[in-house]
Amino acid sequence: MITARALTKEFKIPRKQPGLKGAIRHLIHGTYDCKRAVDGVDFSIEQGEAVAYIGPNGAGKSTTIKMLTGILRPTSGEIRIHGVDPQKERIKNAKNIGVVFGQRTQLWWDIPVEESFSLLKNIYQVPDEVYSENLRLFQEIFGLSEFMGHSARKLSLGQRMRADLAAALLHNPSTVFLDEPTIGLDIGTKEAMRELIQKINRERGVTIILTSHDLRDVEDICRRIIVIDHGKVVCDQEIRALVAQYPMDRGLQITLSAKSPGLLEALRAKEGITHAAMEDTHTLSVEFDPNLHTAFSLVKEIDQSAVILDFKLKEPSIERMIEQIYRSGEGAK
Ligand SMILES: Nc1ncnc2c1ncn2[C@@H]1O[C@H](COP(=O)(O)OP(=O)(O)O)[C@@H](O)[C@H]1O
Ligand SMILES: [Mg+2]
Fold first, then answer.
1. Which of 47, 50, 228, 253 could form a disulfide with 55 if both were Cys (CB 3.0 to 4.6 A apart)?
2. What pLDDT score does 331 carry?
3. How far apart are CA 289 and CA 267, in angstroms?
4. What domains does the chain contain, in order, with CATH numbers?
5. Ligand with an atom nearest the CA of residue 36
């Protein structure tokens, strides 16, 4: 079980004034701004759960993951990972967890992947039979053998992320933290990553905590979503309940030559239009129930009272789901 209680992280950012005078003043007075990146976060996660930790850029996701994995010390609050405080018992915690950061590798840059793996095997004292069974599984899903002899610096991003995920799982951790693990990857690698993550969650009961901007990652892997914004939890729910509560309507973004008076009111008065607003002076955003309208019929209709320069369909996405949660005004708990 993983628990966070009133978890808070503040960063002190030096407030630099321009020029030499400012630099000296900063040295003497030590002027700082305080940024509260994580602000009183509470949750508890049972063994075997798969949880998506999502929110806009800068919401505090990575900072939370870094505290949970013992990389950053909380300013206040409490964390327990299987009863262990990750700051006080970093080594004990490391044996329980696996970590993948999409933005940087955990592998040794200059040595062949297979040697990184055997170093990890020794560090974590992975028994031979566990090690070879894991390598077999990773090979089956990831096809690692083609680049096991290469050093991490020579791998493509897709190969590196496959090697990174495999490395994080070698010691059979009971919890895996994945921070944007599929960012920038090609579809094939994304799918292989999802397959392996799903497999270790469903077949081995490994707890998964995942941050991602990819709705497919979240839908395929996770059963529960925690949404965070400005460092605070704004929603913590089963995905199924969330989707039922905020059905993903279809969305259109239409560029108009000018704001058209009365258009918004007319749209909002229609049945099956769940949202209509100007994003800026020229961009109209419309969401609609696909049972009652089609994108084509709406564009045709709007075209009668405004000059349409361009339009595009908005796909279901994490960002849109979060938008809907906010719009409903029920976001804040
Ligand atoms: N080391 C740091 N020093 C100062 N500010 C930081 C540091 N790390 C993160 N922040 C700030 O904290 C906030 C949350 O960052 P982060 O946890 O990386 O967000 P997310 O992963 O959700 O995009 C951001 O405003 C970010 O600029
Ligand atoms: Mg991040």
1. 228
2. 43
3. 13
4. 47-244 (3.40.50.300), 249-315 (3.30.70.100)
5. 1
186-205 per-position pLDDT tens digit: 999 999 999 999 999 999 99
**136: enclosing H helix or E strand:** helix 128-142
For the CA of 63, the nearest atom of ligand 1:
17
Q: Looking at the CA of 101, name the nearest ligand.
A: 2
For residue 331, give the DSSP letter. -
Inform me whether the pLDDT recorded for 333 exceeds 70: no
Count CA atoms within 13 Å of residue 316 on its CB side. 13
The two tokens of residue 321 are 């789901």
C-alpha 118/C-alpha 111 separation (Å) is: 11
- Which residue has 């700082």 as its token pair? 32
Which residues form the pocket of ligand 1, taking CB atoms under 6 Å from any ligand atom? 11, 13, 35, 37, 55, 57-63
Q: Whose CA is nearest to atom 12 of ligand 1?
A: 37
What 8-state DSSP symbol labels residue 117?
A: H
Phi, psi of 251 (to 5 degrees): -130, 150
Pair 167, 119: CB distance under 8 Å? no
